[in-house]
Amino acid sequence: MKIAFYDTRPYDRESFERANVDFGFGIDFFDFHLNEKTALSAKGYDAVCAFVNDTMSAAVVEILADCGVQLIAMRCAGYNNVDLRAAEKVGIKVVRVPAYSPHSVSEHAVALLMALTRRIPQAYMRTRTGNFSLNGLTGRDLFGLTAGIIGTGKIGMLMAETLSGFGMKIILYDVYPNKAWAAEKGFEYVPLERLFTEADVVSLHCPLTDRTKHIVNSASLALMKKDAVIINTGRGALIDAKALVHALKRQAIGGAALDVYEEESKYFFDDWSADVIRDDVLARLMTFPNVIITAHQAFLTENALKSIAEVTLSNVKAFVGGEKLENEVRLP
Q1: pLDDT confidence of residue 331
Q2: For the whole prediction, is pTM greater than 0.85?
Q3: Would you tell me how many other CB atoms lie within 10 Å of the CB of residue 168?
Q4: Which of the residues 156, 183, 199, 239 has the least number of beta carbons within 10 Å of its own beta carbon?
Q5: Residue 140 CA: distances (Å) to CA of 17, 116, 173, 232
Q6: Catalytic residues, which ones?
């Protein structure tokens, strides 16, 4: 089985080469994205392994099929960038890694929240230049505040439990509520509008679907408290970034910490420090002192990379062996 890996970085190569010792697949790593312009590079491969910012539209899927590709192995949980209908039509199976290390993402979300509310980036930059003034660095206790968790899968559940440990009141929203868990923990599921109205911290952990796209928008932002903050380690398009900029400019909310961004594919995972960022919304977000942006790194721990590699290659092994694909993605 020959696999073409796309959009790979040194840490991807290290983890997959280490894991592949136990599988013995033929692997080639490419640092460019999989899209319509590059899809022909898959000729001669049985499978492709893609990541969050690769594009597998109908046109790409058809090219992959013509190249002889039989399997798309996503090394992530999300699959909204794959045209499942097109894949089914040409007979290409799609698999994913549904949960690699929920702790890595939830812990990063907590780190973003703490850094934002305690103004850690500003304090760090000051002391690096010998400025030990505390003016403008006043933070806020999390104890006694209300956290609104949108999406209560494994990551959202961990986030809720962690923030509860800070002494925060937890309210939840999910279209498929886990009522038994919430009752056991003393948490409450509430309507979405109420969550936006009451929460001091809104943390996003839901998948990106037609229903959740721009779940944070001008209307929901208008409901929020003026000192409330938003944490997003889910998918960039859960937030209408233009509406967020508008709210921040009007000081209608307290701030935002983002590990993902709707139009991140051009910039995230690459070095743009010596170039011009032409995305006006992203550039504007980067100017706010009450905004923290990390470049989709919440997943990036040794534990998660190991799990991603092992599960991805196990998915491929199951496909080769004609076994049931437990992590297959199908049309609803």
Answers
A1: 86
A2: yes
A3: 20
A4: 183
A5: 45, 10, 25, 19
A6: 235, 264, 296
